[in-house]
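Private note to self, pasted from the team thread so I don't lose it. Backbone tokens:
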């Protein structure tokens, strides 16, 4: 397997050059992964170069080390599915005549009651099924953030860019009003069609509280079609695009990336060979789940979230995380090349949340056997968490 990491402004590895590289690797039957970092020039890891970039150096170093750990047998790409534990909440899209919506909220069990970041999850075309609820629960358990599954109701709305963005904005407005949420620290994560919608939001709308937007296996041809009419940014989220090498054509990738470059967007684009749509979806009925692409892409997302969000109050961890193996630096990985020949990383451990209160429903407390206690209000799903095993 091969890992290629390049700068988005590297004169040697522009979008056309990466298209040629992918063709050559596919022709050789190789397993590959490519990562491009926006606004980064050639030699970004060279401390002695004027193009050195500490953030890109740290992210690429972490990506490389986790990649090599698997190749050397120190990790695997196995993952376990958490048991969903969410509360059903009601809200509305005020920009669509108050259209009623139903979401699912997962609140971390934390002893320290503080306003926390929230990750809004936008579902694929199958709707808010168990998968999205599991991911929301995973966000709450492993990071100490709130996880919220948004309601984007109806294929007719998902096919309309304006209505799709309106649904996402309704979710943003709702979580910002929640008592347990820090309204200045919001992320949007979309899967499949939801990943397409997340990029619509990034290109045509925006909210200053949204710090990061991630698209997992979205349909980039649809995004490229609206990219030409994209609005100038009035906010600067970190945009993460995780794409299957067999799903999106390089023509669409080039058009989208050229648009992001022209907008001076802060983006990171990763591509994975041999995978198509739904590569993160454990329960995909067509069997398209891919452990390598799922773990690698979620690791990238996790490190971005830990980078843009403040650290949560530290509580003793009870178990290792199920996914998200890539660490996140909080400072330049190296202060001086005379001190070390390799970047030093800050290893932020996953939180083991235990309770926080919120106005739109509380998640179940767990007893020592992992079973949930019945709540006195709000409809809930799940009977507590089934803690997952060690993730690479």
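Design output:
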């Amino acid at each position: 397997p091969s890992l290629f990491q390049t700068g988005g402004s590297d004169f040697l590895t522009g979008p056309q050059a990466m298209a040629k590289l992918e063709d050559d690797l596919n022709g050789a039957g190789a397993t590959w992964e490519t990562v491009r970092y926006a606004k980064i020039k050639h030699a970004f890891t060279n401390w002695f170069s004027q193009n050195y970039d500490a953030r890109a150096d740290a992210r690429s170093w972490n990506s490389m080390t986790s990649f090599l750990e698997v190749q050397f047998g120190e990790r695997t790409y196995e993952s376990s599915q958490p048991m969903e534990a969410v509360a059903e909440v009601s809200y509305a899209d005020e920009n669509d005549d108050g259209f009623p919506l139903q979401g699912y909220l997962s609140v971390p069990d934390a002893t320290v009651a503080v306003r926390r970041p929230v990750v809004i999850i936008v579902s694929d075309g199958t709707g808010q099924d168990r998968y999205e609820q599991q991911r929301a629960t995973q966000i709450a358990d492993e990071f100490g953030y709130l996880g919220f599954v948004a309601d984007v109701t109806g294929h007719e709305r998902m096919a309309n860019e304006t209505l799709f963005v309106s649904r996402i904005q309704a979710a943003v407005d709702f979580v910002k009003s929640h008592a347990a949420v820090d309204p200045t620290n919001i992320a949007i994560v979309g899967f499949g069609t939801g990943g397409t919608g997340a990029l619509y939001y990034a290109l045509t709308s925006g909210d200053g509280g949204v710090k990061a937007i991630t698209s997992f296996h979205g349909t980039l041809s649809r995004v490229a079609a609206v990219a030409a009419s994209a609005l100038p940014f009035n906010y600067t989220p970190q945009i993460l695009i995780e794409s299957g090498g067999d799903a999106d054509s390089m023509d669409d990738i080039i058009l989208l990336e050229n648009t992001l470059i022209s907008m001076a967007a802060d983006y990171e684009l990763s591509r994975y060979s041999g995978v198509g749509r739904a590569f993160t979806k454990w329960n995909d009925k067509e069997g398209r789940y891919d452990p390598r692409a799922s773990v690698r892409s979620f690791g990238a997302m996790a490190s971005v979230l830990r980078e843009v969000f403040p650290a949560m109050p530290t509580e003793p961890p009870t178990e290792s995380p199920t996914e998200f193996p890539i660490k996140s630096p909080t400072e330049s990985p190296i202060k001086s090349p005379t001190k070390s020949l390799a970047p030093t990383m800050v290893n932020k451990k996953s939180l083991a949340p235990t309770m926080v209160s919120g106005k739109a429903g509380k998640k179940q407390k767990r007893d020592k056997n992992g079973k949930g206690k019945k709540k006195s209000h709000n409809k809930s799903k799940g009977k507590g968490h089934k803690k997952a095993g060690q993730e690479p």
